[in-house]
Design brief:
Pantoate--beta-alanine Ligase, Chain: A,domain 2; Rossmann fold; binds pantoate; three-stranded antiparallel sheet; 2 domains; six-stranded parallel sheet
Amino acid sequence: MIIVQAIDALREELKSWRRAGETIAFVPTMGNLHAGHIALVKRAQALGSKVVVSIFVNPTQFDRQEDLAAYPRTLTEDCAKLQAAGADLIFTPTPALMYPSGGLATKVEVPGVSEWLEGASRSGHFTGVSTVVCKLFHMVQPDVAVFGEKDFQQLMLIRQMVRDLDMDIHIEGLPTVRESDGLAMSSRNGYLTTVERKLAPSFHLILREVVDALHKGRQDYASLQIEAAKSLESRGFRPDYVEIRRAVDLLPAQVEDTDVVVLGSAWLGKARLIDNIPLTLKKVTETS
Ligand code: PAF
């Protein structure tokens, strides 16, 4: 496994692989890797002959400075995990290499999908994500890139950017990897205290209750969303949103929509948790 920090060194290595006919599968990360990231690497191995993983805590996607400062940086452990998983190259650029002018200059904006839900709660977050992913795609020029569905909106935003900018990259989404108690794996779970960690799986359970209610035929989506938020509050969370949206474009779901996703975000202590459950509803048929 090769570790490179410089963009030129990355390009040289990738050029020689491409000349040799290798196909490149890419997994962009911010490090502090857990089993969810390793699942992305394993999927990448099935899709390309060489796997490149980037580790870069991207400052431009943090809306709060304290979150950026506190974000866990565990490069040595991450490299060991990637070596064991069989990654071929790790790209670890510094902020100065990624942003020579000190911050965002040229920006990639994806209007619409970047404005709701996470975009509404975290000002500038998605501009930071689309810009850094676009830059990384230009540097790596992968055939395929793999992302987790836990960040459902991020995945949709990247797919939209790739379509709009005619990037010749297949975007693969992978289902959320969960702890045995249902909590979605996330680097931010490390912010939870022992007591909060015990409470945290109820976030997923409450979203699952919404899913069960939908499967049972409830169509009062607004009330379901309010009930779920109240349920979160009663268990000590500070909910940001619980929403039932169309899986295809994340617009508010209507009763005739069949492919939907229940998305939620809530604070528990210092951790802002996000999760989602996609589901397919039976078509509502007219009865005479
Ligand atoms: O999902 C993440 O870890 C980040 O948002 C990403 C895609 C690596 C961009 O910094």
